[in-house]
Amino acid sequence: MIGSIPLSDVLLASAALFAIGLTGALLRRNAIAIFLSIELMMNAANLALIGYGAALGTPEGQIAVFFVIAIAAAEASVGLAIFVALFRHTETIDVNKVNLLKW
Amino acid sequence: MDRLIFDVAAVVAVLFAALMVLNRNPVRSVLALVVSFFFLAIGYVLLWAPFIAAIQVIVYAGAILVLFLFVLMLLNVPLEDVAGTEPRPIQQILGGAAILLFTIGLVELLSGYGAKNVTQAGAMDFARGRIGPLARLIYSEYLLPFEALSVLLLAALVGAFVLVEREKRP
User: Fold this and answer.
1) How far apart are CA B41 and CA B53, in angstroms?
2) What are the residues whose beta carbons fall under 8 Å from the beta carbon of B61, sequence distance 6 or more?
3) Do A54 and B127 touch (CB under 8 A)?
4) Of A3, A26, A33, which has the smallest distance from its Cβ to B98's Cβ?
């Protein structure tokens, strides 16, 4: 009944997901794709939190993940609204073409 | 057995995450991420977090990513054009630093934590998948952050409306 998942497996998966998300955030130029990569990085952190929570036997990890998911929902709604407003202004969401605030 | 299922789910999640990054079509990117999050939810169940697995599927895959899809279809974003996009020096430096950091972290992980098993805490109530203790904790010790969260969600809702509202011509 009680299985045996080594914590290293969980952390390895989490690290791989985070690295993929970081790569995506650096490589992609579509603003929504960058945003998706950031969501992926948050999920990698969630996985690490749950892994540690299970390994240490405390529910705090799951509570932190609960809050992270709720904040991710708020962040996604505001971020996507910004992209919609941006698209109305500039007709693009390519981050290389949106350089008004760039020095 | 648990370990096998977890590893398979994690590998599939990582593969679909890579697919998300590599795909130039943003709609396909979102759908790949949905699949990745589903397999992550399977991993959460095996790590004794069924509640988190449920909200992962309902809130993340079901609500947040569908919001992404809605916005993508609203904007009708073209494909990213790949032609003539040499990586700039800053991009190369950042990419190299990211890969370096990841390699260092990987070595640290594999050398340090290999022996520890996730299942050592079988005695805890929550560890058997009950969400009662979790709910009790959220509504007692973490009540203030929980309520602040509801205010934050309301603020985000109002903020999103204000941002996308068209300017009224006088």
Assistant:
1) 5
2) B34, B37, B38, B41
3) yes
4) A26
Separation in Å, CA B76 to CA A32, B70, B114: 12, 10, 47
Closest C-alpha to B38, from B18, B71, B10, B19: B10
Phi-psi region of A50 (alpha: psi -120 to 50; beta: other; left: phi over 0): alpha
Digit-coded pLDDT (tens) for B122-157 = 445 555 667 788 888 889 989 999 999 999 999 999
Give the tens place of pLDDT for each residue, B82-109: 544 666 778 778 877 877 787 777 667 6
Beta carbons of B65 and B40 less than 8 angstroms apart = no
CA closest to B107 among chain A residues: A12
Residue A70 has pLDDT above 90, yes or no: yes
- Give chain B positions within 8 Å (CB) of A75: 156
**CB–CB contact A24 B21 (8 Å):** yes
Give alpha helix (H) positions in chain B. 2-22, 26-46, 50-55, 65-75, 89-112, 132-140, 143-164
| Contact at CB, B80 and A30, closer than 8 angstroms | yes
